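Protein: Imidazole glycerol phosphate synthase subunit HisF
Species: Heyndrickxia ginsengihumi
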Amino acid sequence: MIAKRIIPCLDVKDGKVVKGTNFVGLRTVGDPVELATMYSKNGADELIFLDISATHEGRDTVVDMVKKTAENVFVPFTVGGGVKSIDDVTRLLQAGADKVAMNSAAVKDPNLVTQSSARFGAQCTVVAIDAKKVEDGTWHVIVNGGRIDTGLDAVEWAKEVERRGAGEILLTSVDADGTKDGFDLSLTKAIVEAVRIPVIASGGCGKLEHFPEVFQKTNVSAALAASIFHDGIFTIQEVKECCMNQGVSIREIGLY
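Structure follows.
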C-alpha cells in the first residue's frame, strides 16, 4: 500500500508566509525559508510553496526566495503562483523546485499543462484547482486567488488536466479554506473518483482527526494543511501518529 503524505503549505505574500479564511483576511505567520526548513527537518513528506498574490498582481514568483528555500529542504518541493508560461515553469524547476503548480494560467491556456508535461514530465506538472460549491450542488473552478468564478465545472476540469498530462492535482476547497472545520469530503471524493492521478486535499483542516478522516473516507493521496502547523497547534509527528493509530498507511518520521 502506498503511504499517504502529509504536506505543510507555505502561502507567501510580500515575502512572508500568510494565512487567512476563505482566501481573505490574511495574517502574517512567519518567514518562508525558516518555516520550510523546520518542516523539512520535522518529518514533512513534501512541501508546497505558493506565492498567492502573484497572479492577481501580475508579477512573477520570487525566484530568489524559491532558491533559498530549496537549498534548505530535503524533501520534494512544489512551487506555484504566477506561473503563466513554459518559461516560468523552466525557471522554477531550475531554481530548485521538484514540481511546478499552475492554476489561473492553465485555465486560460490549457495547452500550458500539455507543454509542461511533454517537456518536463507528468511528475513535474501539478495543476492547482481551487473549487467552490455553487447553487446546483456542483463545484466551479475559482481563479486569481479566489477572486474570479470561471464557471468551469471542477470535476470536468480535473478530467481534462489529467488528459493533458498533469501528474497531480492540488485541490483546495474555497468554502473550507481556513475554517478548521475539516476537509471538504464531498468535493475531494468527487475529484478523486473522477481521475487516476494523485490528488492532494487542501482547505479546512483544524483537528488531528481530520487527517485520518479524509484518508479513510476518500482515496486521496495526500493531505495539506497550513494554519495548524504554522500556529504550532499540532506537529507533523502528532499528525502522523494519529493517522497510524487509525490504521492509515503513513511514512514514519526518519524513514526517508
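Remarks: Residues 32-41 form the longest helix (10 residues).
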